[in-house]
Amino acid sequence: MITSYRMTPKRRFLSALFGGRVDRTPVGSATSVATVEQEEMTGCYFPEAHVDGVKMAHLAAGAYEILGYDCIMPVFSVVAESAALGCEIDWGDKENMPINRSSPWKEPEDVVIPDDFLERPTTKACLDAIKILRKTYGDRVAIMGKVMGPWTLAYHMHGIQDFLMETITEPEKVRLFLTKLKEITILFGKAQIEAGADVLCVADHATGDLVSAKTYFDFLLPLHKELTLKIGCPMVLHICGNTLDRMKYIAESGFDCFHFDSKVDAKDAVKEIDGKISLMGNVNNPEVLLNGNPSEVSEKVAYALRAGVQIVGPECAVPLKTPLENLKEIVNAVESFFECV
Ligand SMILES: [Zn+2]
Fold it and tell me: Which of 57, 184, 198, 44 is nearest to 118 (CA)?
């Protein structure tokens, strides 16, 4: 339903997250929309912006100040937890995101959360950034936090190949790992809410490109139900890749919204989710946002809007060289779409 009054980005975003009335579809992403151009415009560069809360907040605010999006999400990388838990990290540079270089936990017994986990450079920077953003933008823009779910933490901390193999050879070990890792998601998630996040994204990459829908159903769905209940705030699940075959389960997971990839057609996603939760996405990154032009962006946005996607935005963390004009075009395309209807 369309309202007759103009909404602030925050109200628009939160209403859409719960499938409610809006003045127009909001634009946003549960993953990073920072780019090299925004680093240059704000003077806040990677890799410092991963460990300095002030720089992180200023760069993240570009999502609203520069791109005109309805939410700000400062947790750019996927290494906040793994760096704080002792992984070796390749920190990248202003054109490359950091990546994990080691997976130190061999057995579930190795899972130990340090007492100062929330005080380590990466975790503290995220919490500081959320506090700053809440104070500066909390009255008008939705602030989103982001944590890794237990499945992704297992990829990082135990190693992706061993972990995936053990889902078949040692399922009980996998369950024990996930049960222990889940506590990290809850701890960091609750801390981000306390710092001022309106919404929390859980990134948990049980994608169809790596695991079956049955694996999601057996191992992860019960944990997602528990996580959403325990964390308790408005929540978004992010899984990139093809997830169509597990969307019926995701719709029952307790998340309010699913951030999905362009590998799933927007119409198929809307049909599969069946109105049970909202959808966010799914404008293609490599072909459309990075290498396409504004008219191609506009076409993909209109497709998602016609399909009924509630929040439109990039499908996943945008490549750092994505042109600003393509990212801004998402908002222009949404505005023009709603002027025409
Ligand atoms: Zn992703």
Answer: 184
Q: Summarize pLDDT for 189-220 with one digit per residue, the tens.
A: 999 999 999 999 999 999 988 999 999 999 99
Pairing of strands 99-100, 89-90: antiparallel
Residue 4, in any domain of the structure: no
pLDDT tens across 113-162, in order? 999 999 999 999 999 999 999 999 999 999 999 999 999 999 999 999 99
Instruction: Give the Å distance between the CA of 289 and the centre of ligand 1.
Output: 15
Look at residue 2 and tell me if it is in a domain.
Answer: no
- Cα 180 to averaged position of ligand 1 atoms, centre (Å): 23
Cα(158) to centroid(ligand 1), Å? 19
Would residue 1 count as lying in a domain? no
Distance from C-alpha of 231 to C-alpha of 226, rounded to nearest angstrom: 9
CA of 241 to the centre of ligand 1 (A): 7
CA–centroid distance, 264 to ligand 1, in Å, is 13
Are residues 156 and 201 in contact, defined by beta-carbon separation less than 8 angstroms?
Answer: no
CA of 293 to the centre of ligand 1 (A): 22
Q: How many domains does the chain have?
A: 1
Once rounded to an integer, what is the mean pLDDT over residues 86-110? 97
Instruction: Please indicate, yes or no, if residue 291 is contained in any of the structural domains.
Output: yes
Looking up residue 299, the CATH number of its domain turns out to be: 3.20.20.210
- pLDDT tens-digit profile of 49-69? 999 999 999 999 999 999 999
Domain coverage including residue 133: 9-340
* pLDDT at residue 5, as a whole number: 84
CA of 4 to the centre of ligand 1 (A): 35
Give the Å distance between the CA of 339 and the centre of ligand 1: 31
